[in-house]
Structure formats: C-alpha cells, structure tokens
Amino acid sequence: MKPSRFSAKSMIYSILSVTVALFFTARFAAAAAPDAQPGATRIAKWKDDRKAVFLIMFDDSCPSHWQIAIPALVARNLVATFYINPGKAEYSKFKGKWENEIWKTGMVYGDHTMTHQGVKDLENADWEIGACAKVITDIGPGKKPRLISWGMPGVGPGKWNISGEQLKSLLAKYHLVSRPTFDGHGAVYHWQKTEQMLALADKGIKAGDMEYLVIHGVERGPDMNWGYQDFWALKQTILFGVLDGLKERRDRGDLWITDHISYHQYLTERTSAKVRTLPAGPGVIKLELTSAADPNFYDLPLTLVTQVPAGWRQCRIVQGTRTATAVPVNGAVQFEALPNGGPITLEPSSAAAPAGKG
To answer: What pTM did the predictor assign?
Structure first.
C-alpha cells in the first residue's frame, strides 16, 4: 500500500503548512500528576495521547477496495494503507481510480511491487520495486523523496531471486519502510470472524502498543463482481463490523488508527525525542523538543502534555509561526509540536489570564 508516499494526507499536510495550525492540534489533556510543577512535560507515547495504534492494510489493488472498502472507511473517517501493484490488470484497468480519485479520500499507498510476480534478478527487482515507488511518489502532492511503506508480496517458490541484503539495499535506495509481517494478521487466511479481528485491537490496547490487520479482497455483490470475487474475499458484514468496532475504540479515546508510515514516523521520532524546559519570564513556559530522527523524512508532530499554572484557563501555544490555543484539563494542556522546530512558548491567553493580571 504514516507513502516517498502519496496520499490525500500528504496533500492536506502541504496545504496546512501555510496555516498557523499545522503542527498544533489543541486538545484536552489527560490528567496530570497532582504534584507536577508548571512546565513539567511528557511526550505522549502515541498521537493524541491514545493508548494504542491500529493499522488497516489492503493488498493487491483489488477492485473491491474502491468499490466497497474505501467508501466504508470514508464513512467512518478511517484511514488505511493500500499496497498497490501498478503493473497488474486490476490496477491498470482502473488506473484513473487509483491515480485521480482514491488518494484524494485520504487513503495512503504502499509499494507492493509492480506486478506481484516476484523478481528474476537484481535488475528486475530494481524495476519492480523502484517503478512502483515512482508511481506512488508521482501521483499526488508531497515531498519528493519521502518515506513509502513496503509490503513484501507473497510469491511462489523460486520467484524471489534476490538476497535479503540486496532487498535491504533497494529499500534504502527508494526510501521504503518495511511493514510488519503478514504472519498471524491476515483476514480470511488467519482470522475469519469480526470478534477475532477486533481482538487484535484489544490486544494492542492492553499492551499499549501497535496492532494491525491485512485484508485482500472484499466480497462484492452480483452487480459489481463481474463473475468473480477478489482474492481471499472478506464478507462485507465482517468488514463493516470490524470497521465499526475500530471506530468505537477510536471514538472512546483508545486507538490511534493511522497509516503505516505515520505510525513509523511517530515511533521513530518519539524514541529519540527529548523535551526540556528553557529559561523564561514570569507567567511564561518555554520548552525545547528535539529528536535525532532525520527531519527530511521524519516531520510528523509529536503530542506533548504540559502542566500549567492553576490560574490558566486558556493557553496560547507558539512554535515559530505556528500558533494554537488549548484549554487546560486537570492542570495540563495537550498539544502538538514539531521536533527540532524551535522553542515552544506557552502563556495564558489575554482572555484567560491568571487572576490579578490583565
């Protein structure tokens, strides 16, 4: 299928970059420790301080993806990563859908090779992998190059004729990031019931970690199946039940449901991120957020939760030219900031200054 990657999300990010709110999404903060001092800040493990992450993945450019799955995802405001094969008939016949419509819905594409037929040698592998990456990069707006998710296609014995080191070199060449393995996470192949698939999400929530599901085809009705069903067709009722269950877990604040690259970016940035308090004047909190991740490819904001003085009823947050406001909850504000994006200043807004101040 967190797209270098192409997606409507990339387009949206580029549009929002000219606004003051690109790197800040003001949200209510989680409860802070009762003895925390103003300025005490933690980096949320996951975006929006969610408990866990869930990734939805679709393989093989199946027609049922745009016929059934994508409308269902859009209706629930969910995102998924679609691993495409631009050289397969399923894609080429509906090229206009994939290249002019689908990415505008917010879905993200990943590299699944051009043809899904395997690779004969290193030269052929370079084309299979690199040409698919170029299609993804060229379709929609966004950085060039940028990170793209890589999904290894399942092929028969003797059809993948390069070494692990050669593959690693090609992935680096085209800025591809390997997704988690298919093992134990395939709809229809491993899990057949809605409850089994949602159990993966609950497992992630319990562990505070990432879980995922890989889907191939989706069952299509007689009016759109053209005499055949897509590979490993998942019944619509099961898919819709899974999506409804994921939406419920997202809406109650448990899950961050995102694409593979956004997850990878957040995890990579957060792993080496550090936040420290800088000297500031009275009534002002100043922070510095840094990360060792390469900012050319790792440019996703991280979620911070900062304790503020008890008198603050509304907080103004500034990083560079970007500004947001947030309302403290339990003495803390939650907001987004870009690692290595310059100092972050928090102060009470003029409409909500502490008692005794204008």
So the answer is: 0.89
